[in-house]
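Sequence, please.
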């Protein structure tokens, strides 16, 4: 019998100084969790809409990822956090998640935020459609980022590659309907795929906050408000197994 996966979601704002953000990792990453999730772009915030972030891009073995790895090792955990990664086009880096610690991976955001008046694709490059699933303490964890949440086919692809948990770091811009969309989509991805979803956003006022832990039947196990917060939960494997017996939609699908 597998043990529950102990998770922590750190809803904290990223600043514009990469060195300061790196320095905060040691104080923000809590002990006692198997998996710690920080928001999208935590290495350095996007800045004003349309800003050029290429000068803040790093390799995935650069200073930010190295500090994530160091802190993860110190805490005995796996940490997922967002950064801008240098790519083939120096002017358009990737929006990348790094996982470091007991599991190691990098996921480049597939769907860029060309929506609600923003044009992320003018400043960033999209990653290839390659599902990234890692094993953390015996649990299969899939990675996606922010706007990816609006594309159910990506979540289904992760589940088809074995994900039992989907992690969604985000910088979900605040605005009319945005919290409602966020909460609806996080729960929908959990329900339709019978998986746990860990959605960790940057806080208000610029972003929407409301980080969430949702179980495979859509029950909200923990939810933050608008401000800085840390959520903790235990993901029990038997809950997922029971959910898939109760709602065998993955087995029943025909497409």
């Amino acid at each position: 019998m597998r043990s529950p996966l102990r998770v922590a979601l750190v809803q904290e704002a990223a600043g514009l100084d990469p060195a300061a953000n790196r320095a905060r990792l040691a104080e923000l990453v809590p002990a006692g969790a198997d998996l710690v999730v920080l928001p999208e772009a935590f290495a350095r915030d996007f800045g004003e809409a349309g800003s050029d972030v290429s000068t803040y891009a790093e390799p995935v073995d650069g200073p930010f990822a190295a500090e994530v790895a160091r802190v993860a090792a110190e805490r005995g955990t796996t940490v997922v956090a967002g950064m801008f990664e240098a790519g083939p086009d120096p002017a358009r880096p990737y929006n990348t998640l790094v996982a470091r610690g007991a599991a190691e991976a990098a996921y480049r955001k597939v769907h860029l935020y060309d929506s609600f008046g923003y044009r992320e694709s003018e400043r960033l490059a999209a990653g290839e459609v390659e599902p990234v699933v890692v094993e953390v303490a015996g649990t299969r964890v899939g990675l996606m980022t922010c706007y990816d949440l609006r594309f159910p086919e990506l979540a289904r692809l992760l589940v088809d590659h074995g994900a039992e948990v989907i992690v969604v770091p985000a910088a979900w811009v605040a605005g009319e309907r945005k919290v409602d969309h966020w909460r609806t989509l996080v729960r929908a991805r959990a329900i339709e795929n019978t998986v746990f979803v860990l959605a960790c956003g940057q806080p208000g006022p610029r972003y929407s906050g409301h980080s969430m832990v949702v179980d495979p039947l859509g029950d909200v196990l923990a939810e933050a408000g608008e401000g800085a917060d840390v959520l903790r939960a235990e993901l029990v494997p038997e809950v997922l197994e029971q959910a898939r017996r109760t709602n065998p939609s993955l087995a029943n699908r025909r497409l």
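Residues 137 and 184 are 29 Å apart (CA to CA).
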